[in-house]
Specification:
By secondary structure, the chain is mostly helical. The chain has a domain at 3-114 and 129-141. The protein is 58% helix and 5% strand. The chain is built from eight helices and two strands. The relative contact order is 0.09.
């Protein structure tokens, strides 16, 4: 597993728990599997990083594009039809989306911020059945489009967090780095004034 796959896998475990998505969501019908021994059992249950948008089609090793699958379920996934794979990938994304909303709600409740329910509207939007079922296949983004999208997403997340007074991980890192530089500069100036290092 590459370095980026490993770090994305660790972040997925931190956010969604150390469990295979297929097992957690009961997406594989044949649950009775036989193993030759403990070593094989542990090897087959080892978690791997799964690219939702395939690497060959421009998919990056990110939390947004990833899912946690045990080695045996990853192997099983790769043997499924393209339609079945799309269905499973949609289930992974839906699960992450629900967990993210739940966590965001808990953060807001913890900060005593009331969440207004969505207003009902009489307007309806007709969706093609393929989109409704989640089976529509989009063309992969170019690296430039992917970079622009990631930048746009970061900006939108930062705006939402700022609105509710919540600091993103990136903002926290930037703040800590800035504080460290300020502390080092202050220490350097104090040493020079005190005559150290001459």
């Amino acid at each position: 597993m590459g370095k980026s796959n490993k770090s994305a896998k660790e972040e997925l475990i931190r956010l969604y728990g150390k469990e295979c998505f297929i097992e957690k969501l009961h997406l594989r019908p044949d649950t009775e599997r036989k193993y030759t021994g403990k070593a094989q059992y542990h090897r087959m249950k080892q978690l791997t990083y799964h690219h939702i948008r395939e690497k060959s089609k421009g998919g990056k090793a990110t939390v947004e594009n990833g899912a946690l699958l045990s080695a045996e379920n990853h192997e099983w996934f790769n043997k499924q039809s393209k339609e079945k794979q799309r269905e499973l990938n949609n289930a992974f994304q839906e699960y992450k989306h629900r967990v993210d909303i739940h966590c965001a709600t808990l953060v807001l409740k913890d900060k005593d911020i009331e969440i207004e329910p969505l207003q009902e509207t009489e307007e309806t939007i007709e969706l093609p059945s393929e989109i409704e079922r989640g089976y529509i296949e989009l063309e992969p983004m170019t690296p430039e489009e992917q970079a622009k999208y990631e930048e746009y997403k970061k900006k939108k997340i930062a705006e939402k967090y700022k609105k509710f007074g919540v600091e993103t991980a990136e903002q926290k890192r930037e703040r800590e780095q800035k504080q460290l530089l300020e502390d080092l500069e202050l220490e350097f100036n104090e040493r020079n004034r005190g005559g150290y290092g001459r």
